[in-house]
Design brief:
14% strand; alpha/beta
């Protein structure tokens, strides 16, 4: 063994710009509570083959990283096995090679078996920035580890049962959530979406390959990529990301890790009796992943969001009224949004949809006149009545298409109406407008009010009185 390195963890000199790893609790420590730091000739160390398979970027080093190590040395020791196999520090080792260093600081750690080595390699990379592909390769390794450990627990049995007990299915469902947490990809449901995209890409599906490339660049969300792939292969993955209870094993006979099917009372239904604030959280849970960047471009009083954990999303509350638009001092016209192209994962749109509001005799003296004035674009070309309503939806949809990323979600609130004695199926007209702009219709929710509509002086009824509205969901 060489003499002890003077560059130790906790040195007061400036650490390198990156690659400083938080040391795990399981490292062997000396009596003083600190791991023993030794040194090794750089040429005696060997990279772990799993590192290249999983990350593949050992030699892709930033100039600032190399400069930092050249000027400051390696502050965080590499973690190696007693046989000098590197578990953590492959890029520091590569930097040392490129800079012609002779020795590097190391901590020698024994592992019970190869599975522990692999798990430690993944765990020690948790803090680094990773692409979507690297995370998914990590997940494959973690599933291999869990499958091997499950076999160890079973022993060398040859009498495996045909059906897996519920407790074992639940264990594999928990494995999915554990893997999702370890690779920092979100919930188990988000991870199911990610696996659908990843597995399709591994089968050389061109759309899935393109979506993975976008995910690696940060130009796409997981839910957006899933929607693009799921549209092509709807039979290969369920809306919930979970398999049927009747098929608790995968094709190779191993227990499925996708969890149990939802019970009837867990399902989100297409028709709902209640209020906007009751239904809207379910729409988000089904169609917008946590962490998504969302523009609510007709924020109003924020009723939709009253029962939503807004901290789980990056919400831009945008409104024509300045006091209701935290991101703008003057109010925002949603026909001309102050946002960049492809900036959002989701857009929520809920303009006034009663044609009477847009009649010119409502513009002065009415308690709602401010709404008509603020939505004044409808009066360009003297648009009034139901034509004004459709003009608003068309203008909003066009801007939403511009600011949404490919695969983004467009959520629209509307209501059918009878105007000037004529029945207008507004939700159908909006679907036609959006699909002509290139949106794909993804879902429809019917919201039935809890109160009885007023008769409004109706003497002879010609059309059914509307007591329901719609949420339409589109994919960009």
């Amino acid at each position: 063994m060489l003499e002890e390195n003077t560059i130790l963890v906790g040195s007061n000199s400036s650490p390198p710009e990156e690659e400083v790893t938080e040391l795990p609790d399981y490292l062997s420590v000396e009596s003083g509570g600190q791991p023993r730091v030794e040194t090794r000739h750089l040429e005696t160390l060997q990279p772990h083959p799993l590192n290249e398979r999983t990350y593949g970027d050992r030699a892709d080093l930033k100039e600032t990283f190399l400069d930092s190590i050249e000027n400051n040395g390696i502050h965080t020791p590499l973690i190696v096995t007693p046989t000098d196999l590197i578990i953590s520090g492959h890029r520091r080792w590569e930097a040392g090679k490129q800079l012609d260093l002779e020795i590097v600081p190391v901590i020698v750690q024994e592992f019970a078996d190869e599975l522990d080595q692999k798990e430690a390699l993944i765990d020690l990379n948790r803090q680094r920035d990773k692409t979507f592909s690297q995370k998914m390769r990590e997940s494959e390794v973690l599933h291999e580890i869990e499958a091997a450990r499950a076999r160890q627990r079973q022993g060398q049995r040859t009498d495996l049962r045909e059906n897996v007990p519920d407790s074992e299915v639940s264990e594999f469902a928990r494995t999915r959530d554990v893997v999702a947490e370890k690779i920092n990809i979100g919930s188990g449901k988000t991870y199911d979406y990610a696996r659908t995209v990843w597995e399709a890409a591994q089968d050389d599906d061109p759309v899935a390959v393109n979506q993975v490339n976008k995910l690696d660049r940060g130009d796409q969300s997981i839910s957006g990529a899933y929607k693009m792939v799921h549209q092509r292969h709807p039979s290969e993955s369920s809306d919930t990301g979970t398999p049927s209870a009747a098929t608790p094993t995968d094709k190779d006979g191993t227990p499925s890790d996708k969890g149990e099917i939802l019970s009837p009372d867990e399902l989100i239904l297409s028709a709902h009796i209640g209020t906007n604030e009751d239904l809207f959280p379910d729409i988000l849970d089904l169609h917008v992943e946590k962490g998504a960047v969302i523009a609510d471009v007709t924020f109003g009083k924020g009723v939709f969001w009253k029962q939503v954990d807004v901290d789980a999303y990056e919400l831009r509350a945008t409104d024509i009224q300045p006091e209701r638009s935290p991101s703008d001092n003057t109010g925002v016209n949603y026909h001309d949004l102050p946002y960049d192209d492809n900036e959002f994962d989701s857009v929520v749109f809920d303009p006034p949809y009663a044609s009477g509001l847009y009649n010119e005799d409502r513009r002065d003296g009415d308690e709602e006149a401010w709404i008509v004035e603020q939505y004044g674009t409808v009066f360009e070309g003297k648009r009034t009545g139901h034509g004004a309503v459709l003009h608003e939806y068309a203008g909003g949809a066009k801007e939403a298409k511009r600011v949404l990323r490919e695969g983004g979600t467009y959520i629209v609130k509307t209501m059918d109406e009878v105007a000037s004695g004529k029945q207008h199926l507004t939700h159908v007209e909006i679907i036609d407008i959006c699909e002509e702009l290139g949106f794909t219709t993804t879902d429809l929710f019917v919201l039935v009010g809890q109160t009885t509509p007023s008769s409004q002086g109706i003497v002879t009824q010609q059309h059914a009185r509307k007591n329901h509205s719609y949420f339409l969901v589109f994919t960009a």
